[in-house]
Amino acid sequence: MLQAISVFFVVLIFAGIAYLSMRRKKDFKFYALGDGTLGPLLIAASLAATYIGPGLSIGLSGQSFSVGWWFPLAACAYLFQFFLIAYLIGPKIKERYGDVSTLGDVLCGSACHPGKAYLLTTATFTFLIMVGVAGIMTLISGTLISTIFGIDRNLGGVLATILVATYTTFGGLKASVYANLWQLLITSLVVVVVFILGETSSGEISNETADGTNAASPLVVLGVVVSFILGDFLQPPFFQRLAATKTARALKKAYTWCGMYMFSWFILMGAIGVSARDKIPHDTDSDAVLFAYAEYAVGPGFSFLILITLYLIVMSGHDAIINASASTATNDIIGRIAPSLPKRSIMILMTVVVAFLGIVLAQYFDSVMHGILFLSSLWAPAVAVPLILGIYRNEETHLPAMMALIFGSTASLITTFTADEMPAIAVGVLVSAGVFLLTSLICSRQHKENLQ
């Protein structure tokens, strides 16, 4: 009964958020960027909640449990990503492109990459990566709902996705941002209380961190660090929040506040994972560590509250992914092929499509962190590297960017399936950057020869 009542209130809260968000006139920009009333504090909270998701909560605590302190400390490389976006890339996007809605307006827009083939290739690649992430979100949501109510995991994933897709469909980004704020506040409070209770109980602080650190080779650590810096660099959910900030100054504030919160979160998740070694069975699955620790701290009688809190963590990333994926498909794929179609209707339709595809793909993932790291190893060389290298160039870079996407992602895939010890993302990034720079040099020389 308590489980049902708690979930009912969760549903009621997010239904209210969706209703309040849809009271203003809605068009595509409303769905993609809100209505222009989102300040830096709201954006910072939404960024933090979206970054955390299941990967930097369930996944990070599980990896800390498995390998020790080096993993959460490596996660602090995210702070360098925040610095790049807040002080270098983000302001340049604001200055150069002004009013944009999606990543395609920058990466594939006429001001930077006029090649239509590159536009559609990158937009489709981005959409597929985001749908993959939606599948991971559906997987972990289904697992949590299944545990709360004792129903089938697949059915749980369907129900959880319907809830998220519904308030995202009717409220757009604004609903997602306000939902993220409440999710972050509740999650932070509960996780801190759980940690305090866990550390003041009869368990002892773990002293096994050295073993976990020694288990990681330098190449493995390098791969993880690169993943945290570039693996989700300005993926559509984060780009949306960048675009929703009114000025470069507001952007810097949002990412600075987000970075301060995230540093504390990395340490907290690391402490929970490492401490859990002395408190829960050593053969606990990595994706179950956070819940097992919480159950140890509060007792089985209140474990359903922890499950609901974990579900709120997952929701914070799930709604952002669905909204951003639908925006990408609407503006960067369908909007370029058939610009006369009404974007608002297409946006709603694509929200449903993304939710459905996420449910289907959830069957093919078996671990949150492994799935995220795999998708990150494709995103970084295919999109992040061309974006960073091309944003400051005044010349057309669609051909170098296309070559970087093809060769970088291919190199990453080959390394993933043929070289276990070699970090695929690092190989892909190096190949992508080398191909981009080499192709740019060739194109520049060709352009000069044509002028002569």
TrEMBL record:
Write down the superkingdom of origin: Bacteria
Q: Where in the cell is it found?
A: Cell membrane
- Gene3D superfamilies under this entry? Sodium/glucose cotransporter (1.20.1730.10)
Which reaction equations make up its catalytic activity?
L-proline(in) + Na(+)(in) = L-proline(out) + Na(+)(out)
Q: Name one GO biological process term.
A: sodium ion transport
Which Pfam families has this protein been placed in?
Answer: SSF
Q: Where is it mostly found?
A: membrane
Give the membrane topology: Multi-pass membrane protein
Keyword annotations from UniProtKB, A to Z: Cell membrane, Ion transport, Membrane, Sodium, Sodium transport, Symport, Transmembrane, Transmembrane helix, Transport
Q: Name one GO cellular component term.
A: plasma membrane
Give me the segments passing through the membrane: 6-23, 30-49, 69-89, 125-149, 155-173, 180-197, 217-234, 254-276, 296-314, 346-365, 371-392, 399-418, 424-443
Q: Name one GO molecular function term.
A: symporter activity
InterPro entries linked to this entry:
Na/Glc_symporter_sf, Na/solute_symporter, Sodium:Solute_Symporter
Q: Which family does it belong to?
A: Belongs to the sodium:solute symporter (SSF) (TC 2.A.21) family.
The name on file for this protein is Sodium:solute symporter
